[in-house]
Amino acid sequence: MAVAQQVFLRDAMRKLNLTRDMFSARIGVKRRALDSWLLPEPSHDFRVMPEVVRRFVTEIVENEALLEKYSDAAPRRGSLRDRIAINDKHQLLSVDQFTRDSVEELFYIADIMQPIARRQKVSRVLEGAVLGNLFFEASTRTRVSFGAAFCRLGGSVCDTTGFTFSSMAKGESIYDTSRVMGGYVDAMVIRHPEQGSVAEFAAATNIPVVNGGDGSGEHPSQALLDLYTILTEFSRLGKLLDGAHIAVVGDLKYGRTVHSLVKLLALYRGLKFTLVSPKGLEMPTEIIEAVAQQGNHVIEQTNNLEQGITGADVIYATRVQKERLQSEQIRGYGPEFQINAAMIERFATPDTIIMHPLPRDSRPMANDLSVDLNKDPRLAIFRQTDNGIPIRMAIFAVLMGVETLVQHSMRDVTWSPPTHIGPDDAIFHGMD
Ligand code: ASP
């Protein structure tokens, strides 16, 4: 069975690095026709792409791959899970494991997962497998979405939450906990308050381990879903990520999501990063240096929110990580630091997308991303959270080596999910 036409076309555009306008010109079709082929199948305006177009696009992509092969670019070798492995182990600990090529291959697999994530199809490729979801620090969406992703592939989940009720509170070492759990489950997702701790868990077992957030270190699955969201939004808006302006705002010192995200974005070329933080919460130097070493990026740091977000293609806001503050006297952002409707009206563009890893602190004194933007279609936060499912499904499928089985395993769902999940969802939500 060939992959769905939306998956096929999105993959081709990513591989060729073309916007919808450029791609439709390249294959000689009207942009309107391409847009209708790119819709998910159940959508009203969906049209079937002629078979000859599929053949033509396949040829273009294959020719491009041949050209690359004979240039200096590194050729692809082996499966994705082997290419991202650490010491031959199938783990996801850091975004440093990815190249632009491998990250886009993961997104191709995430695209295949979309009909399952959107509850049109079911799959049981992980039937019999058990996930250990070990969260030693607060979490709602990461824990539940990893669990739901595993279940939607047919697996089952065992959860544990909090440090107080774990054996580590009795003095058990990370090594012992990890080795014991490895005997009970087939994969683990770990969240832990200490940077580097998830790598310690991973060193003590040979089953797949995923970093669900290690202190102020990294949060790779969040960064992957953020990048996937940006690329999906940019595709709809007709933009390329290369050359874009990304404003990252807030607690850049302790916010692990932005540590992972800027490193992942740095795989693209010619980005302008404006790193906007209150004094004392600046991005760590080693991350800025890692980004500066590649891709011809421009990096600006500022404490002035208005200046930092002006004209940005993406504004990525974050919460003050109060649980990690040390000597800093910060209780929340000052009002001059809040991203709200008035601020967006003055300094953003009609195409700016506004993101946040969530949770946003909605208490008034926190001055986190304002709820007055909830009906603004530029607010992409719930498109981000929805994308957490296909991305986490793709991560499991790759780490467990079943990604090629998913396409053939899909069956129709037996129940009727609502067509729109959120009452305030934008009209295009779930359509691209
Ligand atoms: N949920 C994200 C994290 O676990 C962001 C946050 O908590 O502010 O890092």
Write a short abstract of this structure:
The protein has helices at 5-16, 20-27, 31-37, 51-70, 80-83, 100-117, 141-152, 174-182, 197-203, 220-237, 256-265, 285-292, 305-309, 341-347, 381-399, 406-409, and strands spanning 121-122, 130-135, 156-161, 187-192, 209-214, 245-249, 272-276, 298-302, 314-317, 353-355, 411-412. It has 432 residues and is an alpha/beta fold. A 5-stranded parallel sheet has the order 8-7-6-9-10.
CATH superfamily of the domain at 220-322 and 330-382, called what? Aspartate/ornithine carbamoyltransferase
Radius of gyration: 21 Å
Quote the distance from N terminus to C terminus.
Answer: 22 Å
Main beta-sheet annotation: 5 strands, parallel
Strand content bin: 5-15%
- Given the helix and strand composition, which structural class is it? alpha/beta
* CATH fold group of the domain at 220-322 and 330-382: Rossmann fold
Number of strands: 11
Task: Supply the number of helical segments.
Answer: 16
Mean pLDDT: 94
Order of helices and strands: HHHHHHEEHEHEHEHEHEHEHEHEHHE
Q: Poorly predicted ranges (pLDDT <50, ≥5 residues)?
A: none
- Helix amount, in percent? 25-40%
Notes on the structure:
- This protein has 432 residues and is α/β, with parallel strands linked by helices.
- Among the domains are: 1-75, no CATH class; 220-322 and 330-382, 3-Layer(aba) Sandwich (Rossmann fold).
- Helix content is 39%, strand content 12%.
- It contains 16 helices and 11 strands.
- Helix 1 runs antiparallel to helix 6 and helix 10 (220-237) crosses helix 11 (256-265).
- The longest helix has 20 residues, at 51-70.
- The two termini are 22 Å apart.
- The model has no long low-confidence stretch (mean pLDDT 94).
- The chain binds aspartic acid.
- Aspartic acid binds at residues 142, 213, 219, 256-257, 319, 357.
